[in-house]
Amino acid sequence: MDSALARERALDAAEELFYGRGVQSVGMDDVRGTSGVSLKRLYQLFPAKELLVEAYLERRDARWRGQLAEYAERQVEPEERILAVFDWLGTWFAEPGFRGCAWLNAYGELGATSERVAGQVRAHKRAFREYLGALVAAAGRPDALAGQLFLLAEGAMVTAGVTRSAEPAAEAREAARRLLEAG
Amino acid sequence: MDSALARERALDAAEELFYGRGVQSVGMDDVRGTSGVSLKRLYQLFPAKELLVEAYLERRDARWRGQLAEYAERQVEPEERILAVFDWLGTWFAEPGFRGCAWLNAYGELGATSERVAGQVRAHKRAFREYLGALVAAAGRPDALAGQLFLLAEGAMVTAGVTRSAEPAAEAREAARRLLEAG
DNA sequence: AGCAGGGGAGAACGAGCGTTCTCCGCATGG
DNA sequence: CCATGCGGAGAACGCTCGTTCTCCCCTGCT
After folding, report:
1. Can you give the distance from the CA of residue B105 to the C1' of nucleotide C8 in angstroms?
2. CA-wise closest residue to B58 among B108, B98, B106, B3
3. Which distant-in-sequence residues (6+ apart) come within 8 Å of B26 by Cβ?
4. pLDDT tens digits for A79-106?
5. Are the beta carbons of B125 and A163 separated by less than 8 Å?
6. A-chain residue closest to B126, CA distance
């Protein structure tokens, strides 16, 4: 097993475990057991647990935003793209094993103690906010609308996570639709 | 120092420390140091750390909802009361030491490992949702509006926590105002 | 004064876990 | 065939921390 593959396996295991059970309740030994990558290898690839956490969040960030954009951009009309964001949230919330927003969970767990993780969470949320800003600008709407849609999306993520339900996505979509048609 | 006072001191310290630094990074010894209540007393009052955490969340829940209701009910018109909720969020976000929603932080930290804490978070959010529902019903609006306002408020809390800014309250208030005037 | 007991300070205990180390097998190159 | 070194398994180490225990003081009662 070469380094690239070991790295991928380690990140797969880290993502599954950190997302599913929280970062602090997962030990490096659990990551080894799930990934099949030995501790020695793990520490060669990620010299400390915190680096593994950062790599997990970074890889997930790229995938999350990529999938969102891919989904939204199937729509042609700017307004449709905006609403598609909420549809995509709904499919995400309905996935088995959905446990809320990985970044918000990580922030609650580590934000107070790890400035680097807190920074990653802020960067992820800023990127999402800017993506919404771009969609809103493409629709010729004021940027303030993007802020409001962002709050709806964040509220939906948090509520879906806590209540284990996909319903908030539809509620947020409806609110977004009304904000769009009113403005 | 009698038991009631010791209990109060312990909860004061627990709240300050758990909220400010997260539950897991605060030891019982820190609570003892901050509260001045000895470990022996602490364990008489709260036989395990988890019970102290639950008591912290419960006391804070009562205070949080009480203060919100007190603030909102200074307004007479139902619509004004709804908007006052967002004004109150703004004053909360601007308080020194604000670090986001205590329940969402606790959920990110412990939701995956403590079913009791997860239940407290759900109960707190449900109560807030129902409070909004009552305000919305008093305004003669459909309950679906309360769900949308709830998502805005949750999004504002989370975003204010992550970005350390009070601004999301005003954004959410503006969105709420538009949803109110549109419907 | 003598004593019983609650309470405080802090040491001690035990588990969990991040990180490192030891030991061994095995593959590869001379 | 032997030497070398990488990699795996898992023991070991050290620290943190939840929880309990020890020892002692002080108070209040007789």
Report:
1. 34
2. B106
3. B14, B17, B18
4. 999 999 999 999 999 999 999 999 999 9
5. yes
6. A163
